[in-house]
Amino acid sequence: MPLPLISEAPVADVTPDVTPDVAPDVAPGSKRLIDRLSADGRLPLADFETLLSSPSDADRAYARVRAADVAQRQFGNRVFVRGLIEFSSHCRKDCLYCGIRKSNREAERYRLSPEQILACCAEGYRLGYRTFVLQSGEDARYTTEVVTDIVRRIRAAYPDCAITLSIGQRSTAAYQQFFDAGADRFLLRHETADSEHYGRLHTAGQTLESRLACLSDLKEIGFQTGAGFMVGSPFQTVHHLAKDLVFLSEFRPHMVGIGPFLPHHRTPFGDQPAGSVDLTLFILSLVRLMLPTVLLPATTALGTARTGARDAGIQAGANVVMLNLSPPEQRPKYLLYDNKPVSGEVFEMTEAVRRSLSRIGYDIVVDRGDHPKEIR
Ligand code: SAH
Ligand code: SF4
Asked: What residue owns the CA closest to ligand 1's atom 2?
């Protein structure tokens, strides 16, 4: 059964002009900073550090209600769904946090053919998905030509859909070719905006500088570009998180992916604690206030970390959910972290999310769900 069609245009870009009368016990200092972030779209590093140091329940509640208000003004009660197609679990990189890193010899590897990817799109389309997110490890087997061909075929078959790539770092020329073939968006989390911290999460040869160069290429080319990071990644401090938020305020991406770090038992960080759900929710609210029109998913990692956290993410200011269109038999092999959900038919999962969101007053909609200012 297709998703119900809701056709209103997104609400225009408006900055909230009223402060909701909520969280009366919010600390005056926190309230001032949250209000300033909302008004200016940025804060100095030291102010982000203050905000993030030890937010009280009241601080978080204040940010949440203000952020939900901004999201409501931008998008109404509409939540965009994305169909995620995890098309290869091969990766030549070795990010220390990730379950499909090259050095994890136990990880099972698979690749989807272009025909299998198109079959995933067909099922998603039938169920009302109008954005396909093609994600993979960094797999050299999918050359520039191969990816371009896949994008071209999806573009031809689904002219009314958005195509998002999340395939890691490539050359400027390759990115340009994907864009010319019809890809609309690209997700490439910066992971951490501190180069020393970046070094501790990755192996030699992976640098923040090269990651940021890719992000600026992508934006320059014209992609709706997504950055982002994990909350609670090993060695992360409040200073690093503050730098992440300053980076987002300067780079001003169209999309921001933020979820808690979750350990994977076959990685060097397998015994590290998971990131905080409450801190992730607070940061989602701050990002919504800072970038009112941003496409902000309540991520799978967030939903995995705590039951009900995906809905809480929407209530904290997120406006996107991603559901897995990958073939069910391959999903257990794309295990970035432990306990990632892998079971369930797409139809049932979609319905479950729809029901859950409708209980809190939101509708998932049949819509490409573009960034309001970047419709091509
Ligand atoms: N290979 C591509 C896309 C796949 S990984 C890339 O790296 O860009 C997509 C995202 O999953 C990464 O950006 C990372 O932030 C997240 N991720 C990986 N391992 C994780 C973990 N253990 N916990 C939470 N998120 C993780
Ligand atoms: Fe590969 Fe991406 Fe995992 Fe890094 S995060 S190991 S690039 S799949």
From this structure: 168
- Kindly give the confidence (pLDDT) of every residue in the chain, 376 residues in length, as a single tens digit, with 9 standing for 90 and above: 454 433 333 444 444 444 555 677 899 999 999 999 999 999 999 999 999 999 999 999 999 999 999 999 999 999 999 999 999 999 999 999 999 999 999 999 999 999 999 999 999 999 999 999 999 999 999 999 999 999 999 999 999 999 999 999 999 999 999 999 999 999 999 999 999 999 999 999 999 999 999 999 999 999 999 999 999 999 999 999 999 999 999 999 999 999 999 999 999 999 999 999 999 999 999 999 999 999 999 999 999 999 999 999 999 999 999 999 999 999 999 999 999 999 889 999 999 999 999 999 999 999 999 999 854 4
CATH number for region 28-365: 3.20.20.70
Atom 8 of ligand 2, residue of closest alpha carbon: 137
The gap between the terminal CA atoms of the chain, to the nearest Å, is: 29
Cα–ligand 1 centroid distance for 336 (angstroms): 7
CA distance 169 to 215: 9
Q: Return the domain boundaries, the chain.
A: 28-365
| Atom nearest to 336 CA in ligand 2 | 3
For residue 99, report the distance from its CA to the centre of ligand 2, in Å. 8
What is the spatial distance between Cα 20 and Cα 26, in angstroms, rounded to a whole number? Answer: 12
Residue 94 Cα to ligand 2 middle (Å): 7
Residues 3 and 26: their CA atoms lie apart, in Å, by: 40
Is-above-0.90 flag for pTM?
yes
* Token output for 277: 């759900």
Residues whose beta carbon lies within 6 Å of some atom of ligand 2: 91, 93, 95, 98, 100-101, 137-138, 168
